[in-house]
Amino acid sequence: MELQLIKSKIHIIRNSKVIHNRGLAELYSAETKVPKQAVRRNINRFPEDFMSVLSKSE
Predict the structure, then answer these.
(1) Cα 28 from Cα 14, distance rounded (Å)
(2) ∠ Cα 35 5 53 (to 5°)
């Protein structure tokens, strides 16, 4: 993968680097629901703050 493509998917929100599930799905050529499903199926492998819900203003 091209480094610039990956960097373009990273955003700073709440002083943290994040990649939206849409961007993650694009990087892996998958549907947007796939990253969420993967995390839910393996929730114990991810830190508690791995996923969050954005407010409308964010």
Answers:
(1) 25
(2) 35
> 11: Cβ–Cβ under 8 A, 6 or more apart, which residues?
17, 18, 19, 20
pLDDT at 33: 93
pLDDT in the model for residue 27: 92
Q: What's residue 1's pLDDT?
A: 64
* Two tokens, residue 53: 């819900």
| Dihedral angle, C-alpha 36, 38, 42, 45, nearest 10 ° | -80
Structure tokens at 34: 């796939």
